[in-house]
Amino acid sequence: AARAGGLPEVVSDRESGLLVAPGDPRGLRAALEAVMGDHALRRQLSSGAIERAAAFTPQAVLPRFEQAYGRALAARALAVAA
């Protein structure tokens, strides 16, 4: 994946995938060749991707959203009261 936008938040380089610089076709080719030519690397990245994906389930994400909204509301209440 390209190391751009939100992708690095989802793909952890060499743990759940391989990240390359945006607009780097040679880097992408090298990453693809590495994965295609290394069975152990494919298994490692696959396992890592499954674990990483679990961090983005609704059950895992909802508490973080609730905390973020709670902090935002508390900060707003303090700003309004001041």
Detailed description of the structure:
The protein is mostly helical. Helix content is 70%, strand content 0%. It is built from four helices and no strands. The longest helix is centred in the last third of the chain and has 24 residues. The chain is elongated. The model has no long low-confidence stretch (mean pLDDT 94).
Mean of all residue-level pLDDT scores: 94
Elements, N to C (H/E): HHHH
Number of helices in the DSSP assignment: 4
Helix-strand category: mainly alpha
Shape: elongated
Q: Key terms for this structure?
A:
82 residues; elongated; 0% strand; 4 helices; single chain; mainly alpha
Provide a compact summary of the structure.
This protein has helices at 7-10, 25-37, 39-54, 58-81.
Topology:
Layout lengths: L6 H4 L14 H13 L1 H16 L3 H24 L1
